[in-house]
């Protein structure tokens, strides 16, 4: 019989989506209050994965990933998602129904990249408070690999490079912890 124990701490990140480069930068300040000091940023790349968000957020969307220095329990994912929803609300245009920024927190551990979501689906596991978790990239054979349901932007070369670099930083942090 196995013995239950807490998992190793994880490396948190947030995927940001907005048509405003200035807003991508401004939101980082809000995110540091939740997740700690920023220690990594992907390049800002045009969002070409779909037109899903255009009706709500407009055209010319940009994607950026930001990672955070402190390691934290994977059990904090639902709380992080709830807090990022509050930030999205804070930046919503008055009198408009659409968001100006989309924030999707997740974490990376040795084996995978996990996303938080408010939407249920067959591959998602309920965490708490209306939040689900989804393993969207798996690490094996020396690299990250998507699954049938993995969002296309998580398979972009720029994204995979970001997560590979993030994993290396995470492993170095774990080594320092002993």
Write the layout of secondary structure elements.
Elements: E1 10-18, H1 21-35, E2 38-41, E3 45-46, H2 54-57, E4 62-72, H3 77-90, E5 101-108, E6 112-117, E7 125-128, E8 131-140, E9 143-146, H4 157-177
Antiparallel strand pairs: 1-4, 1-5, 2-4, 3-4, 5-6, 6-8, 7-8, 8-9
Helix pairs in contact: 1-3
Keywords:
178 residues; alpha+beta; Alpha-Beta Plaits; 4 helices; globular
Q: Helix tally?
A: 4
CATH H level, superfamily name: ACT domain
Through-space gap between termini: 26 Å
CATH topology tier name: Alpha-Beta Plaits
CA radius of gyration is 16 Å
Overall CATH class: Alpha Beta
Which class do the helix and strand fractions yield? alpha+beta
Order of helices and strands: EHEEHEHEEEEEH
Counting structural domains, the number is 1
Which blocks of ≥5 consecutive residues have pLDDT under 50? Answer: none
Biggest sheet layout = 9 strands, antiparallel
How big a fraction of the residues is strand?
A: 25-35%
- Report the average pLDDT across residues: 93
CATH architecture descriptor name: 2-Layer Sandwich
Shape: globular
Number of strands: 9
């Amino acid at each position: 019989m196995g013995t239950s124990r807490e998992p190793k701490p994880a490396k948190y990140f947030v995927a940001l989506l907005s048509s405003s480069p200035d807003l991508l930068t401004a939101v980082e300040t809000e995110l540091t209050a939740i997740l700690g000091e920023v220690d990594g940023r992907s390049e800002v790349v045009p969002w070409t994965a779909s037109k899903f968000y255009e009706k709500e957020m407009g055209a010319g969307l940009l994607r950026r990933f930001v990672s955070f220095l402190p390691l934290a329990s994977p059990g904090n994912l639902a709380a992080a998602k709830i807090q990022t929803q509050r930030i999205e609300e804070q930046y919503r245009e008055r009198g408009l129904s659409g968001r100006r920024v989309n924030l999707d927190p997740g974490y990376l551990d040795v084996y995978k990249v996990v996303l938080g979501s408010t939407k249920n689906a067959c591959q998602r596991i309920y965490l708490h408070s209306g939040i689900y978790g989804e393993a969207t990239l798996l690490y094996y054979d020396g690299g990250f690999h998507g699954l049938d349901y993995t969002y296309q932007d998580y398979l972009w070369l720029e994204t995979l490079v970001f997560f590979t670099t993030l994993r290396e930083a995470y492993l170095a942090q774990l080594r320092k912890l002993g």
